[in-house]
Design a protein that fits this description.
298 residues, alpha/beta, Arc Repressor Mutant, subunit A, D-Maltodextrin-Binding Protein, domain 2, 3 domains, 5-stranded mixed beta sheet, 3-stranded antiparallel beta sheet, 12 helices, WH-like_DNA-bd_sf, LysR_HTH_N, DNA binding, LysR family transcriptional regulator, transcription
Length: 298
């Protein structure tokens, strides 16, 4: 029994899928399955069962997995406390993050981190996915927080840390729009509607692909500011597309002035968020400590 196995169990619980969990952890499905099977054999209880809705806990798993989660939480607190007592955790930490993480989990994590490590000077920049990847490659930052895509070529010099965090996408529409009553939408369904484009790399690439084969969307304007995006949709100026992560705790969703509708291709896949750093990093302990704060402040 080891902490790695417990992290694997947590990932399967969160993703409800061996396939998705292995992708997030960047290990093979067989390695993940074997590790969990070995753990189950050791404790003499099966934790998961496959069903139509995904990989879910067994009845015994429902009783045992909460204890596993408590152990992981205690392990994380132990590491954080031990690290905070270590005089080696000093210096600077340079981080680059995508907008969706910067507006959600990063502020909470950074606030907790700075309380525990006031001696660490942290600087954060906001950047696009590919830019973050290249900044890590060029060793211009210590940690990149981004959505890891299939086309990113991870070589042996890089360390990938799963954040155990994913996000899907929704069409956001005014609450009084006829589109608000749809169970799901496609880009074809909204092609003629006034559209406000969130001017970020992932959105631009997918919209450009669609327009290349199906013709242009009725783009009213573009913005890099999430507040402008949500406020404009709430005011009835148009509709847009946003990630589930951006919709967390959004006041316009909470006050029901806008609503979110699932969308199909090419926005129907979930993206997995990860931390990226160089293996030959003299700040490895500091890097892993900050990653643990991100994981614990989702």
């Amino acid at each position: 029994m080891n902490f790695e196995q417990l992290q694997y169990i947590k990932a399967v619980l969160e993703y409800e899928s061996i396939t998705h969990a292995s992708e997030a952890l960047h290990i093979s499905q067989s390695a993940l399955s074997q590790s969990i099977a070995s753990f189950e054999k050791e404790i003499e209880h099966k934790l998961f069962i496959r069903s139509r809705s995904g990989t879910i806990p067994t009845e015994n798993g429902k009783k045992l997995i909460p204890i596993i989660l408590e152990i992981l939480e205690s392990e994380s607190k132990l590491r954080q406390t031990a690290n905070s007592l270590s005089a080696t955790l000093r210096g600077t930490l340079k981080i680059a993050t995508t907008p969706s993480l910067f507006m959600t989990v990063v502020p909470r994590a950074l606030s907790s981190f700075r309380k525990d490590y006031p001696q660490i000077e942290v600087s954060i920049i906001e950047a696009e996915n590919d830019e973050i990847f290249h900044l890590v490659q060029k060793k211009e930052i210590d940690i990149g927080l981004f959505s890891l895509m299939d086309y990113h070529k991870i070589d042996s010099s890089m360390e990938v840390y799963s954040l155990f965090l994913s996000s899907s996408f929704k069409v956001i529409v005014p609450i009084d729009s006829k589109l608000a009553f749809r169970e799901s939408l496609t880009l074809e369904d909204i092609q003629d509607s006034p559209f406000i484009l969130f001017d970020r790399e992932f959105y631009n690439v997918n919209i450009e692909r669609f327009e290349a084969s199906q013709g242009p969307l009725n783009i009213l304007f573009t913005t890099k500011n999430p507040s402008v995006l949500f406020r404009s949709v709430s005011a009835g100026l148009g509709i847009s597309i946003a990630s589930d992560l951006m919709l967390q705790d959004d006041p316009y969703i909470q006050t029901k002035t806008i609503t979110a509708v699932p969308i199909g291709y090419p926005f129907n896949d979930e993206i997995q968020f990860a931390g990226l750093a160089n293996k030959n990093n003299e700040k490895k302990q500091l890097t892993e400590t900050f990653i643990s704060y991100i994981r614990n402040n989702k």
